[in-house]
Amino acid sequence: MNNLLKLALLLLPGTAVSQSFRLSPPQIYVESRFFADSTTVGFGFEMEGSSVFYKLDGKNGSNGFQHYTGPVTIKHAADLKAYAIHPDFWSSEMAELHLIKAGHKLKGGTVTPSPDKQYPGAGARTLYDLKSGSNDLRDGKWIAYQGDTIVFDAELTGKAKLRRIMISSMANYGSWVLPPREISVQTKNTRGQWRNRAHWTASATELADMKRLSGFWMKALKIAALRSDTVRIRIIPFGKLPEGHPGAGSPAWLFLDEILFQ
Amino acid sequence: MDRRTFLASSLITTAGMAAGLPGDPIIGHGNFKYRINTNWCSGNPQQYPVKNCHEMVIDHTGKIYMTTDDTRNNIVIFNKDGKILSAWGHEYPGAHGLTLHDENGEEFLYIADYERHQVIKTRLDGTVVKVFEWPADAGVYGSQTEFKPTETAIAPNGDVVVADGYGKNYIIQYGQDGSVKKVFGGPEHLKNAHGIALDKRNKANPQWLVTSRADNKLKIFDMNGGVTGSVDLPGAYICRPVVHGSEVYFAVLISKLPWDSQSGFVLILNENNRPVSAPGGSSPIFRADGTLEPLYQTVQVFKHPHDVLVDRDDNIYVTQWNSGSVYPYRLERV
Predict the structure, then answer these.
(1) Which of A57, A59, A63, A52 is nearest to A25 (CA)?
(2) Measured between alpha carbons, how far is A122 from A117 in angstroms, rounded to an integer?
(3) How far is CA B124 from CA B65, B73, B233, in A?
(4) How far apart, in Å, do the first and last CA atoms of chain B sit?
(5) Do the beta carbons of residue A218 and residue A169 sit within 8 Å?
(6) Which residues pair with B154 in a beta bridge?
(7) A5 at the B interface (CB within 8 A)?
(8) Is the CB of residue B313 less than 8 Å away from at least one CB of chain A?
(9) Which of B10, B12, B303 to mutate against chain A (most A CBs within 10 Å)?
(10) How do the domains of chain A map onto residue ranges?
(11) What is the CB neighbour count within 10 angstroms for residue A223?
């Protein structure tokens, strides 16, 4: 075992050294959290004397970390974990990112109503462009609503076999941003009628937890395998901010950056 | 993809590992490296409570003055060894910007209070000398509450120049009598115009340095209010410029959103306004086209640094916003 690996094991997150300052988690560089066929991931930590270790399987524990030496190509969904070490500081906490491989590409889509003028994104296309939003909610990769029920009609390329639909949103209670409280999925049959395929309503526990969330939020709805070329997603926002919030009584913001069909 | 997207981590030094795990944590880069002293201030929080610690200045005797929005003592006064000497002020709920200016041998403080929508000029003992009201006749404000000043600088002719960093991002130039003489900047040029400083490094051509914090830019204006330059500092939400020697120092509140991301550090630009060190942050790296790679926090020394004061020995005192009501830290130059 070389010195570098010994040091890496010694300094796994949570292990102590004599200094009291902790490194920050390393940067994860990727074009988007969503990708079609493959994507490339890089890690950054510009600090002399430091190293970064990473793994892709998302599992807990110290096994499986590799020393980062250069960009990594990802072809399947991955749960990235990475940490930084330096001899004079506590090792960093984990940087984590979930990369999602999109299944079916959309031919088109419409969203109603139109997004709020402050956060127009690229309109409906925002929801199927495979561009993930960042923590900067004004980066143009999000669309946002305050209080409206959103209906997204997706037109798939051919009659795709669907098993799962994923809705990507954001949670930041302090900033009045909360995930949806209800999502339903319908498909259109040959007679033009909409049929319910999946439904999710946040439980009381989930609603309470949303107040503590901060960061990207994802909900996957499993659906019985079916073939369809038109899918309707109805998303009901969180609604009014609860008592105790500075904006109590006002509707929470709902931000959406992608809807994925697998 | 460019270098920003793919950074190989190749800075491994086995020499450091061979030395084992001890170490004296040093942060910073190049010729600007610092030892961290979080225990610089020996004050008793029961006696001198603070909430958000906003800005610091130093007088000619070496006393350090700090604004905090705790109205039990809005101005806290330290010596250079971190002992709290005294405190005053109960009427500044939005005590934010603090500027010291020598006027004919007497030093005055200018407190920018965004809650009162005023700038208050005081003597060092807290005696109020003058209150600069909201610029009702400037033509860009409809009410007092739109004006939320965060910083003040004094022009070579003694005019009082105020950055409306939490308001409409205008820079208001007052005469000492309180009359509005000029308005410049504004939302066309500035986004969160949090701090302003008079840059006299080129004595023949003094300029205004204004932080456009939410833009991660330092904007440069001439004495007439015209834009003459802009320095891109991606990842650096810079609070106010502090000119010291040939460098400009900044507290960087955060390096990524949201605003409470606890991702701050300190940044130093050289005489050409080019980053040379980021204590607590990543090494400044430039791309082939000369642009700066986004900066980010590497060591969790600070949560939300809000201002820096640099003393004669080049030590840096750092105040923090929303960081657990801590007293300032000192970075000791090595």
Answers:
(1) A52
(2) 11
(3) 9, 14, 35
(4) 38
(5) yes
(6) B160
(7) no
(8) no
(9) B12
(10) 3-101, 106-261
(11) 18
Q: What is the CATH number of domain A106-261?
A: 2.60.120.260
Q: How far is the C-alpha of A71 from the C-alpha of B31, rounded, in Å?
A: 31
Neighbours of A166 (CB within 10 A): 17
Determine the distance in angstroms separating the CA of B282 from the nearest CA of chain A, rounded to an integer. Answer: 5
Domains along chain B with CATH numbers = 22-333 (2.120.10.30)
Cβ contact, residue pair B17, A174, below 8 Å: no
| Structure confidence by residue, pLDDT tens digits, A90-139 | 999 999 999 999 888 888 999 999 999 999 999 999 999 999 999 889 99
3-state secondary structure of B215: helix
DSSP bridge pairs for A165: A221, A261
pTM for the full model?
0.85
Check if the beta carbon of residue B164 is closer than 8 Å to that of residue B149. Answer: yes
In the CATH scheme, what is the homologous superfamily, with its name and number, of domain A3-101? Immunoglobulins (2.60.40.10)
Q: Which two tokens stand for residue B322?
A: 């929303």
- Tell me: the pLDDT tens digits for A1-41? 344 544 554 455 534 343 489 999 999 999 999 999 999 99
